[in-house]
Amino acid sequence: MTDDELDAINEKISNLFEGKTLDEVATVLKIQLAMLVTQGSENSEDVSDFLDEITTEVEDMVADFDFTQASEGSPS
């Protein structure tokens, strides 16, 4: 997948979740993630391994996120 394709998908998802609460978005994402990992895995151990890997990646993304800049850019 190219960066442009990934950006287009991210933009569509962002538009779908616009105006939703964090809890509402999390509920949808948890359901989608569970469906994805169970379809793409052979057993629960594979699922756990995959989830561990992406958890680490997400933690790294959050650690690198500039919360100050993001809050300065949001409308008041």
**C-alpha-based Rg, rounded:** 15 Å
Largest sheet descriptor: none
Element order: H for helix, E for strand? HHHH
Please report the number of helical segments.
Answer: 4
Judged by helices, strands and strand pairing, the structural class is mainly alpha
Task: Give the tally of β-strands.
Answer: 0
The amount of helix comes to: over 70%
Shape category: globular
Which percent band covers the strand fraction? under 5%
Average pLDDT taken over every residue: 92
Would you identify the regions where 5 or more consecutive residues have pLDDT less than 50?
none
Q: What is the CA-CA span between the terminal residues?
A: 36 Å
What does this structure look like?
This protein has 76 residues and is an all-alpha fold. Helix content is 80%, strand content 0%. It contains four helices and no strands. It has helices at 3-17, 22-39, 44-64, 67-73. The longest helix is centred in the last third of the chain and has 21 residues, at 44-64. The radius of gyration is 15 Å and the shape is globular. The relative contact order is 0.05.
Write the layout of secondary structure elements.
Blueprint: H1 3-17, H2 22-39, H3 44-64, H4 67-73
Q: What key phrases describe this protein's structure?
A:
0% strand, 76 residues, mainly alpha, 4 helices, globular
In brief:
By secondary structure, the chain is mainly alpha-helical. Helix content is 80%, strand content 0%.
